[in-house]
Amino acid sequence: MLVLLVLLTAAAVACGLLGSWQLDRAEVRGAQAAHEARDKILLAPPVAIGELLGAHETFAGELVGRRVTAVGQFTGEQLLVVGRAHDGQVGSLVLAELRVLDDGTGAGTGTGTGTVSPSDAPVLAVVRGWLPEGAEPPGVPSGDVSVTGYLQSGEAAGPGTGSGGALLPDGQTDSISMAQLAGRWGTPIYTGYVVQSDPAPESPMLQLDPPALPGSGFAWRNLMYAIQWWIFGGFALAIWIRSVRDEAREPAEPAL
Questions:
Q1: What gap in Å lies between CA 151 and CA 83, rounded to an integer?
Q2: Alpha-carbon Rg of the chain, whole angstroms?
Q3: Which of 76, 148, 158, 189 would bridge with 123, disulfide CB 3.0–4.6 Å?
């Protein structure tokens, strides 16, 4: 019985260690896979926004981080999205209204076709960059511009912009809510916004880091292997416990 105990205990310990090793591999491989997937998305060449998203179309989660370009005109309307941290400092995002004249699909959304004027073109919210508190945002470029950046999903309305919430000064907001922007800037409007990755030269605005991408960063296959090893270790302990119980139930041999 003692030999059986030693063998089963060793087997249970070995299974536990192998399970822990597989769990560690699940985290390492998952993080590596997530990093590679992130680089694949963020380093991919930009595509025309119309190839991924149209005005009023539902914003899918897999669009976060995709690089796009849009051709249009800034209206001059800008908002400061207050309370946003960057490199440990609190400041504001500079959010501008862009009227998209060419979404890259050739579907007649731009002035090049002579069918849509800038005032009727769909609205795209563009985060131009980040400013420290107290800094004044620079003016937007005039005329037709090409904007390149990362897609990001809209946010829920913050307490400073909702009805009955705390009031903010004119020209400020605390969220990038597409519904509220539609009420301010009009429709049609894109359901996501663009974080500009090519800020104007000599601008006081700082470029933002690429957005965080959704995903678990976990290798589920290795996790299943870890669970299997732990189950095997549990079987070894169960066999030992049953052996002890069976031996306890056996009647003692009569003394001579």
A1: 21
A2: 29
A3: 189
Residue 179: burial class (beta carbons within 10 Å; 0-12, 13-18, 19+): exposed
| The residue type at 186 | G
Collect contacts of 134-142 with beta carbons under 8 A, ≥24 apart. 135/91, 135/204, 137/78, 137/80, 137/94, 137/205, 138/200, 138/203, 138/204, 138/205, 139/76, 140/74, 140/75, 140/76, 140/78, 140/96, 141/74, 141/200, 142/73, 142/74
The residues, ordered by sequence, that sit 6+ positions from 88 with a Cβ below 8 Å of its Cβ are none
Total Cβ atoms within 10 A of residue 254 = 5
Model confidence over 196-245: pLDDT tens digits? 987 666 678 888 887 766 655 556 676 677 788 778 778 777 887 777 77
Taking only the tens place, the pLDDT of each residue in 49-99 is 999 999 889 999 889 989 999 999 999 999 999 999 988 899 999 999 999
What is the Cα–Cα distance from 2 to 164, expressed in whole angstroms? Answer: 74
Specify the higher pLDDT residue, 86 or 43: 86
The tokens for 81 are: 């999205």
